[in-house]
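Researcher: Please predict.
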Amino acid sequence: MDHFGIISIIPPLLAIVLAIISKRVVMSLFLGIVAGLAFYTGSLGGTLIELGEVLTANLSDDWNARVLIFTCLLGSMVGIMYSSGGSKAFGDWAASKIKSRKQAQVSTWVLGLIIFFDDYFNTLTVGSVMRNITDKFKVSREKLAYIVDSTAAPVAIIVPLSSWIAYAMSLYVAEFERLEVEIAPFEMFLETIPYNFYALLAIIMVFVVAVTNLEFGPMASAEKRALEKGELFAEESKEEIPGQDITDLSISERGRVSDLLLPIITLIAVTIIAMLYTGGYFDNGISFRDAIGDSDVATALLYATLLGNLVGIIWYTSRKVLSISEAMEAFIQGIKAMVPALTILLLAWSIGDVAGMLGTGEYVSGIVSETLPLWSIPVAIFLVSAFMAFATGTSWGTFAIMMPIGVPLAVTLGINPAMCIAAVLGGSIFGDHSSPISDTTVLSSTGAACNHIDHVNTQLPYAILAAIVSAIGYILAAVMDAAILPLIISIAILTAALYFLHARGERVDASKHMNN
C-alpha cells in the first residue's frame, strides 16, 4: 500500500509528544489531525476543507452516531441511578451481611466486577458503598482505593456491555475496513479477551491479595498502620483527603437496593436480547454464538440504554424516589459529564482516518518487519501503549493513537490481530488505572476518600508487577501462538512474585488484630 514515508508518522508522534508534555489529549489529538491533513493536502485551504470533511464524515457515520448517542445515554443512566440513592441502600444492606475483613475486601472486588458497564460509575459507586464496611474491618483507605481502581477500567475493557468496548470496536473496525479485511467485530473482541493479560491479571491480583493478605511495598505499610494503629489513612494526609461528593447531584434518602439493581439488570438483559435480535437469532434460526458474533453491538447498547433510562425514570418517579424535575436534572447532568468523552471519540476517529490517509500503519509495519523479530511485536505494542497511557493519563486517547498502528502491523506481518489489539487495550488500561493524572485514578481516590498521592504510591508497585508479568505473557503468546497456556503461566508467575515480594517486605498478620 502507498504511504508518505517518514512523514506519515509525524501526526501520531506529534499527538503523543504534545499529550505527554501538555497533558491535554484533546488539543494534542486535534493538532495531530491538522498536521496530518496539512501533509496530505499541502495547502491551508485544502487542510481546512479536509478537516471539515473528516469531522463531518465521522459524525455522520451510522456506527459512530450510535456510539455517540449510546455514550450520552449511558451518562444519563449513571446520573439517575446515582441520584436515586440505590448505592447508599446497597451499602447499608451489605454492612449487615459481611462479617470479616477478608469478606469486606472480596465483596468490594465482587461489586467492582458487577458494575462493569462504566468505569466512572464503578469508581463512584464501589468506593462510596463499601467505604463504611471496609473501615469497620480496618482496611486501609489505600487498599480500598486500589481494589476500586483495579476493578474499574480492567473490568470495563473485557466485559462486552460497556462504552469501552463499543469505542474500541469502532477503532479497529475502521482499521480493518481501510485494510479491506472482513471480520466479525464482536467475535474479534471475544478473541481479544484471553490475550488481554494486563486486565485479567490486574483483576486476579486483587482477589489473590484480598484473600491471602500478600501485601508488599507501601501498601504493606498502609495496611500495617490501619490494623495496628487503627489509622485508616496517614495522619499527615488528612487535610488532603477528597470529599465524598464528586457531583452536584442530590441523593435521595428513599433509595432501595432495587433502585441500583433494576436499571443494571435491564441494561444487561436488553443488551443481550438486542444483540441476538440484530444478529438475526429470532429471524433466521441461527445459533446463539453466530447471532452474537454477527450482532450490531452499537445498536444493541443504544436500545439497552434507552430502555434502561426509561425503566429507571418510571421506577424512581412512581416510587417517589425522585421527582420528574430531579430525574431530568440527573439525566441532563449525566449527559454533560460525557462531553469530554464525546470530544475524544470524535477526534480519535478522525486521527485514525488521517493516519490511514497517510499510510502510517503500513510504513511502521514495513520498518518493524525489517528491524524487530515477529515475536517482539505484541510486547512492543503493549509497552508503547502502557508508557503512552501512563504519561498522558488516558486510555481512550492511547487507543486512538495506537490502534491505527497495531492493526495494520498485525495484518501486514501475519500476526494474530486479536493479540495485537489486546496488547493496545491492555497497555492502555495499565496507564489509565495507575497514572496520577488519570481521571479514573482521581475518581478512585475520591470514591474511597483516600489521599490521591497515597493511592498512587501504594497502587503503582502492584500495577507495575502486573504489567511486567503481562509483558512476559505477550512474549510467550507470540512464540506459542496461543493465549490460554501463556495466561496460566502468567498467573503462576504473578502469584509466585507476590509470595516472594511479601516475604522480603514488611509483614502484618491480620488474624492477630481481628477476624480474617
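Model: The mean pLDDT is 83.
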